Amino acid sequence: MITEPPVLSTEALTIRFGGHVAVDRVSCAFERGTLTAIVGPNGAGKTTYFNLISGQLRSSAGRVLLFGRDVTGLGAPRRARAGIGRAFQLTNLFPDLTVLENVRIAVQARHASGFDLWSLATRRRELIELAEHHLSRTGLLDRLDATAASLSHGDQRKLEVAVLLALESEVLMFDEPTAGMSVDEVPLVLDLIQEIKADRSKTILLVEHKMDVVRSLADRIIVLHNGALVAEGAPEAVIASDIVQQAYLGTAGSGAGAGHG
Ligand SMILES: Nc1ncnc2c1ncn2[C@@H]1O[C@H](COP(=O)(O)OP(=O)(O)OP(=O)(O)O)[C@@H](O)[C@H]1O
């Protein structure tokens, strides 16, 4: 029987900084339509693991596979074009362009081939319609003409997600999506992630300290500690497990209401 490879997987992924092993032989598969939260104490290697997947860092050993294809040798821009979309890098946005222009450029980049000079006007309309579709999903239709730079922090995050949707990224990676946001903006971003998760077409990875956020969004949790993957499973079971309670959340038996850091 032929089984489909997972959308994304890492095999014994490892990085050393001098003598320090920041990510230590992490093997993990991420399936389409799932949201996996990556948790662990400060310095556990979560962001470094993200950087290895998105290509911001090159691994010392191990592999990153996208649909079973080895992308370990590709840099970040090529991995992004292959479908690994990392949100909230800010480099994804053109600050002086409008909301609509930012997303239209992403749609255009995605649909560059097949460009037909004779139907420029039709083509332009189609690009704008697609861009508006992504902006409608992310709740930005009323900000089409605002420049990216003029948006609130929360709306900029929505715009970044619209750009990733327009680029048709298969994998969406969120590193602490609510960090630095005001209390009113937090639910907007969480609703947005929930909305993208709901159609089950994307593979979502989330690094998050807040356990209430993890509980409400994640289908699965993986726990990193000292760079190694030490626990994995359904959120309630992993959060309640002794290994997480004692070693990673520091409060055995408390019900893990809080993260750390
Ligand atoms: N470029 C680097 N050079 C040297 N050491 C690094 C580098 N990047 C990360 N580290 C080290 O690797 C370890 C993992 O760091 P990382 O930022 O991935 O942890 P984290 O789990 O994301 O932590 P936090 O929850 O605090 O964000 C830490 O000990 C960190 O100091």
Explained architecture:
By secondary structure, the chain is an alpha/beta fold. It has 2 domains: 1-83 and 170-261, 3-Layer(aba) Sandwich (Rossmann fold); 89-169, no CATH class. 36% of the residues lie in helices and 23% in strands. The protein has 9 helices and 10 strands. It has helices at residues 46-54, 76-82, 99-110, 120-137, 153-166, 185-198, 211-217, 235-240, 242-248; strands at 8-17, 20-30, 35-39, 61-66, 69-70, 84-86, 171-175, 203-207, 220-225, 228-233. The strands form 2 sheets. Strands 6-7-8-3-9-10 form a 6-stranded mixed sheet, with helices on both faces. Strands 2-1-4-5 form a 4-stranded antiparallel sheet, covered by helices on one side. α6 (185-198) links the parallel β7 (171-175) and β8. The chain is globular. Bound molecules: adenosine-5'-triphosphate. Adenosine-5'-triphosphate binds next to α1. Residues 17, 22, 40, 42-48, 261 line the site of adenosine-5'-triphosphate.
